[in-house]
């Protein structure tokens, strides 16, 4: 399998002097297109730090992140921003939906950022909401939807621009376990169907069952076997 997303010797230190925190220590990782990788580990082990670095939301203290042939960590900020908009989708624990926008308008945001023409935007938003089973809920605002429905809107938004990589930090952390299982099934199915490389962090064993591969972080290091 071709690995589209790679991390080499990735380290991240927060703070300095006596207050220094080594959040991540020399992590090597590769994720293939169509692969669902789950990152597990205790609270504070570095999961969010790793996902933020892989998604170009933060820069490492040392080491590199590669997206295909492009070294994201060598890019200027403008180029990182463009890469995030064109090539990476994000799903957040707290959904991150804009409350005054309808489900459809929320999903439309990444297409607006990419200056997709209005007619094409409408069609792609419709298809994305259909794909997550929310075709009938396009005009509803987030507060009119259940937590599971809101996260399905979040998934539709993350995937509407057809990214190569999906980064999801505790995507089911605010959902009950039955809803979490449905949302994780959806993530797994779209990742496999569309050939997206996905990195998902979780504490939840139900979600780990859906992974193609699980790696474990301890004190900022990948445990043996990862
Ligand atoms: N911006 C920051 N400034 C200082 N320390 C930080 C910062 N972000 C994270 N840390 C520290 O880095 C370590 C790893 O944090 P991180 O959030 O990556 O862990 P996590 O595995 O995602 O935890 P959780 O499961 O609780 O979300 C922790 O010790 C944390 O306190």
Compute the average pLDDT.
Answer: 93
What is the fold-level CATH name, i.e. the topology?
A: Rossmann fold
CATH superfamily: P-loop containing nucleotide triphosphate hydrolases
* Main pleated-sheet profile: 6 strands, mixed
Shape: globular
User: Nearest-angstrom radius of gyration?
Assistant: 17 Å
CATH hierarchy class name:
Alpha Beta
**Total strands:** 10
What is the helix fraction of residues, given as a range?
25-40%
Arrangement of strands in the largest sheet = 6-7-8-3-9-10
What share of residues are in beta strands?
A: 25-35%
The total domain count is 1
Low-pLDDT runs of 5+ residues are none
Instruction: Please identify the structural class as seen in this structure.
Output: alpha/beta
* Spatial separation of the terminal alpha carbons: 17 Å
Pfam families: ABC_tran
InterPro entries: AAA+_ATPase (IPR003593), ABC_transporter-like_ATP-bd (IPR003439), ABC_transporter-like_CS (IPR017871), ABC_transpr_LolD-like (IPR015854), MacB-like_ATP-bd (IPR017911), P-loop_NTPase (IPR027417)
Protein name: ABC transporter ATP-binding protein
Keywords: ATP-binding, Nucleotide-binding, Transport
Descriptive notes:
The structure is a single chain. With 226 residues, this protein is α/β, with parallel strands linked by helices. It has a single domain, classed as 3-Layer(aba) Sandwich (Rossmann fold). It is built from 7 helices and 10 strands. It has helices at residues 47-54, 77-87, 103-113, 118-131, 147-159, 177-194, 205-208, and strands at 3-14, 21-32, 36-40, 62-67, 70-71, 88-92, 165-169, 197-201, 213-218, 221-222. It has a 6-stranded mixed β-sheet with strand order 6-7-8-3-9-10. It has a 4-stranded antiparallel β-sheet with strand order 2-1-4-5, with helices on one face. Strand 4 and strand 5 (70-71) form a beta hairpin. It is globular, with a radius of gyration of 17 Å. The mean pLDDT is 93. The structure holds adenosine-5'-triphosphate. Adenosine-5'-triphosphate binds next to strand 2 and helix 1. Residues 14-15, 21, 23, 41, 43-49 line the site of adenosine-5'-triphosphate.
């Amino acid at each position: 399998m071709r690995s589209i997303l790679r991390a080499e010797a990735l380290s991240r230190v927060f703070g300095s002097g006596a207050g220094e925190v080594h959040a991540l220590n020399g992590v090597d990782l590769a994720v293939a297109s169509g692969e669902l990788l789950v990152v597990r580990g205790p609270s504070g082990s570095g999961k969010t730090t790793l996902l933020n670095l892989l998604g170009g939301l933060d820069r490492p203290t040392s080491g590199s992140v590669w997206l295909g042939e492009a070294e994201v960590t060598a890019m200027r900020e403008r180029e990182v921003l463009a890469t995030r908009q064109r090539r990476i989708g994000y799903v957040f624990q707290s959904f991150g939906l804009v409350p005054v926008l309808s489900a459809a308008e929320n999903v439309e945001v990444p297409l607006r950022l990419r200056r997709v023409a209005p007619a094409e935007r409408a069609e792609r938003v419709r298809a994305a909401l259909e794909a997550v089973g929310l075709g009938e809920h396009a005009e509803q605002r987030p507060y009119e939807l259940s937590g599971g429905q809101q996260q399905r809107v979040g998934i539709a938004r993350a995937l509407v621009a057809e990214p190569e990589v999906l980064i999801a930090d505790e995507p089911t952390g605010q959902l009950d376990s039955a809803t979490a299982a449905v949302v994780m099934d959806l993530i797994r199915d779209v990742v496999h169907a569309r050939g997206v490389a996905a990195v998902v962090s979780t504490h939840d064993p139900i979600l780990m069952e859906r992974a193609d591969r699980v790696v474990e972080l301890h004190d900022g290091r990948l445990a043996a076997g990862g």
